[in-house]
């Protein structure tokens, strides 16, 4: 089987964007691939974290993966920080990455603008650590949202550069970007992607929002002065809601346009809100159950950390040898 690798930062709670752009696709792809999913806690350190909260968020993320339908007995779901190979390969790959390449990363520029008081070196080399994550496991495919596409490209560039020097060490990974939901936009500013760090709570649907909150946020979603439910570039608010509705129901834009022909935005927004809330309900219930079963989650973490380390070390030892580091005696 081919290897699938992906992960999410363990910062805050997940958004509907994380779910539709990534997690939902992961679940749909599990049977086809040998799957490895990381709780990317090292990446979260690029912004300042409150330790106790951070630890809780990382555990919640693990449980959300499982609640969404990933199976920790079949898929390897582990903590990035528990496998030291990430940091070790990250360093080696830093030495094969040019500053010019990192300077072009749009996410670095965005994040540096947002966190002007803490533009740390980790934020800058973030894509290299991400490349190490992926290459350590010899991943063939990496399902992500559109915003990670550039990071996948630099990962491929670094891997190809390394392979050109040392022979075929790394598998060159492909991004897998879903047709629907790959870029969910803010409900308040549809020109901007939905993000957990948004300061306007109404802009973002959180996976653990209750039904009333979800419906209320969709009711307040920014649209336009027309009243026709139609997918169009000049209608970013409505198009985003259609994208969400489509990703959740599997309906095409045409089918959605037909379904709401002659109805107003109010009816449409309510339908989107109810559909999303209904869809998330089972996940939320499983999540609540899981968070009560500490022993189960912990045994899964332990088992999978070991499995991940086994895969990672295989690649790491090979890389160390290729670059000429002295082998352990
Ligand atoms: P992160 O934690 O920001 O986001 C996790 C996943 O959610 C997707 N996503 C979205 N998709 C659609 N619409 C949105 N509004 C939206 N917001 C987020 C992201 O594209 C991503 O797939 N660097 C990564 C984490 C990471 C990683 C990796 C991913 C670290 N190492 C190795 C894959 C492989 C990140 O910050 O994602």
Describe it for me?
With 329 residues, the protein is mostly helical. The protein has 13 helices and five strands. It has helices at 16-29, 41-44, 51-68, 85-94, 99-103, 106-114, 121-136, 149-166, 211-219, 236-249, 253-259, 265-292, 294-323, and strands at 3-9, 34-40, 76-79, 141-143, 174-176. The chain is globular. The longest helix has 30 residues, at 294-323. The strands form two sheets. A three-stranded parallel sheet has the order 1-2-3. Strands 4-5 form a two-stranded parallel sheet. Helices cover 55% and strands 7% of the residues. The two termini are 34 Å apart. It binds tryptophanyl-5'AMP. Tryptophanyl-5'AMP binds at residues 5-9, 17-18, 21-22, 40, 43, 130, 133-134, 142, 144-145, 147-148, 151, 182-184, 193-194. This is Tryptophan--tRNA ligase. Catalyzes the attachment of tryptophan to tRNA(Trp). Keywords: Aminoacyl-tRNA synthetase, ATP-binding, Cytoplasm, Ligase, Nucleotide-binding, Protein biosynthesis. It catalyses: tRNA(Trp) + L-tryptophan + ATP = L-tryptophyl-tRNA(Trp) + AMP + diphosphate + H(+). ATP binds at residues 9-11, 17-18, 145-147, 184, 193-197.
